Amino acid sequence: MALPPARQFALPLPLDASTDRADFLEDASNAAAVAWLDRVGEWPSGRLALFGPQGVGKTHLGRAFAAVRRWRVIEGPLLRDLPAPAPGGTVLDDADAVPDPTALLHLVNLCAERHEGLLLLAREAPSRWPVALADLSSRLRATTAVAIATPGDGLLAALLAKLFADRQLRVAPDIQAWLLARLPREAAALAEAVARLDRAAMQARAPVTRPLARAALAGWEGFGDDASEAALDLPSPPAAALL
């Protein structure tokens, strides 16, 4: 099988972004995963597992890969019966949450028999899954597993800037840096924060400033504002000024 061009995939930015490669970024956190996705023909036994904590982009990367390759995507918790043949391959998201290990074993065996690729996405490496079936356990241990780490500062900064640009929000670099220091290091959290700020800016008919951001994100569990640092900020403008 001919290998696809290098550097074909990378971490998707917005949660609802298209799978256009222009919408993806790559850094050290996902470079190994991207490299393996570029070498499908080299996957031992035709299987690969990408694993990492929630929010590092496994699902987005897997779905982007599936869209480009025209593979189907199956949600792990929904895998119960044997799926129909899938020309090309299958991406199994939340693979460590399959309710019936027998169904997962059958999927692994069927993909091998049909020479279909299988990409597993999970929080832990397959070798660490608590599996009682000996046959399934041996196949999972033999699956090449690649970790995706927490995105680096550069990728997170680019992600936040891209999310603002997609909504045509002009936010000063110092405000973006201030936000990055207070938001979770997850794509989902950044997307939710930008959506909240967009709504607040539209309602206030004002640009995104620290006071507006603090008011829009106050009480949201994803916002880790520091009250002592907040006291050092300039006084907030009167409410009327933001309307």
Protein model, in words:
InterPro entries: Hda_lid, P-loop_NTPase. It holds the Pfam family Hda_lid. This is Hda lid domain-containing protein. This protein is an alpha/beta fold and 243 residues long. It folds into 2 domains: 137 residues, 3-Layer(aba) Sandwich (Rossmann fold), CATH 3.40.50.300; 90 residues. The protein is built from 9 helices and 7 strands. The protein has a 5-stranded parallel β-sheet with strand order 4-5-6-3-7, with helices on both faces. Strands 1-2 form a two-stranded antiparallel sheet. Strand 5, helix 3 and strand 6 form a beta-alpha-beta unit. Helix 7 packs across helix 8. It is elongated and about 60 Å long.
Residue-averaged pLDDT, rounded?
Answer: 83
**Strand neighbour order, sheet with most strands:** 4-5-6-3-7
What characterizes the major β-sheet? 5 strands, parallel
- Uncertain runs are 1-22, 227-243
Count of DSSP H/I helices? 9
- Helicity level: 25-40%
What form results from the Cα inertia axes?
Answer: elongated
Order of helices and strands: EEHEHEEHEHEHHHHH
